Amino acid sequence: MALVGSAGGLAAASTVLAALPAVLGAPLIVVLHLDPNHVSRLAAILARITELPVKQAESGDALVDDRVFVAPPGSHLLVTRDRALELGNGPPVRRLRPSADVFLTSLAVAYGNSALAVILSGAGHDGAAGAGAVKLAGGLVIAQDRESADYFGMPSAAIERGAVDRVLPVGQVAAAVLEFVQA
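Given the sequence above, the corresponding structure tokens read:
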């Protein structure tokens, strides 16, 4: 399961994580566009608002249930076929590294119809192609609605691509995530 976003994505991801229980039944990966020139405190910030353990992702991390992994700035984050995490230093995609498209495409390959992608607030259109990959693999794609998103670019791009199954206010996303996990 994945939460991806950019501008306004931290607030949206925080809202979702705060509403999730300590026993989720699946791993959760957060990919936000962060400045690669600064040390990221994202894992520590998110750890304060959720009951789930949070860590910054490292190459080789096994995706285990009930844990949140956060993409580090300056590296692409990939899910391998054996459901582990890998950091990549490939070129930025549309000036972005990590790229939500790169990440979500790897998630779709690794998890297929068990993949869940949530496209949160963000400018631009990163995540739309990756959402399309998740949808094509039979997974579920949720987009944050216009009214609750600080920036509707990323959710809108995924919606316009036809890759979104549900459009929800950010306050309803956690319930949809739990519904998906428990199905």
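Residues 170-182 form the longest helix (13 residues). Try to locate this feature in the token string yourself.
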